[in-house]
UniProtKB/TrEMBL annotation:
One Pfam assignment: Lipase_GDSL_2
Domain SGNH hydrolase-type esterase: 7-198
InterPro entries, alphabetized: Ester_Hydrolysis_Enzymes (IPR051532), SGNH_hydro (IPR013830), SGNH_hydro_sf (IPR036514)
The protein's name: Lipolytic enzyme, G-D-S-L
Organism for this UniProt entry: Waltera intestinalis
Length: 225
């Protein structure tokens, strides 16, 4: 059986494109040649199955009065069991939790991520090597964000997530990846550009191979250069 990798995230895992000029199809979603999840699948090869589970507006643990079913916690158990056996769970959330309506901060968002991680560990969905989870701090929102749901505090909160998530990963004995620096579009300062998706895929490939213990020789050579 292939190694199953479940990628749970928000619009940047779904592949939302808010600048149609960035997408080859000029649509509202990057296509299968552009999304980081699909690029990761291509890079890893046939021995892996990368499963997309991205939903715009998704939060760690908050119910959004303006959007239906975006809280991950109530559906996490079902999602994990739907795709078992899992070899790796990638969780990249936190951006939407920083919305003004939730009146939160980086430590509170990290507590929500901790709840998700501990819940995921308890679900009997894992392969022979047991739970393996990669916590990803999303690329921070940039100044100039156009959406009224976000403000300057949201910018600062998302900037602080990487440090808090890294500490959480140590405490929970999971893996951690900082997506900061992956390019965001100047159209809204929240969503990844096509280049940002490529950058994300490259970082994810390295992380996945390290976590699952199988590094391609060419990947090793690239890191040496």
């Amino acid at each position: 059986m292939k190694k199953h990798i479940l990628c749970i995230g928000d619009s940047n895992t779904h592949g939302l494109c808010t600048d149609p000029s960035e997408s080859a199809d000029h649509g509202s979603r990057y296509n299968e040649e552009e999304r980081w999840t699909c690029l990761l699948q291509k890079a890893l090869g046939a021995e892996y199955l990368v499963i997309e589970e991205g939903l715009s507006g998704r939060t760690c643990v908050y119910d959004d009065p303006d959007m239906d079913s975006v809280n991950l916690l109530p559906v996490l158990h079902a999602l994990l069991n739907s795709h078992e056996p899992l070899d790796l769970l990638i969780l990249m959330l936190g951006t939407n939790d920083s919305k003004v309506k939730f009146n939160t901060d980086a430590k509170k968002i990290t507590k929500g991520m901790q709840i998700l991680v501990e819940e995921a560990k308890s679900v009997p969905c894992w392969g022979k090597n047991g739970p393996k989870i990669l916590i990803v701090a999303p690329a921070p929102i940039e100044e100039g964000v156009i959406y009224p749901d976000f403000n300057e505090k949201s910018v600062e909160t998302t900037r602080a997530l990487a440090r808090e998530y890294a500490l959480l990963a140590v405490a929970e004995r999971t893996d951690f990846l900082d997506a900061g620096g992956c390019e965001l579009t100047k159209a809204d300062h929240v969503h990844l550009t096509a280049k940002g998706h490529r950058q994300m895929a490259e970082r994810m490939e390295t992380a996945v191979r390290d976590i699952l213990g199988k590094t391609a020789p060419e990947a090793v050579e690239e890191r040496r250069e």
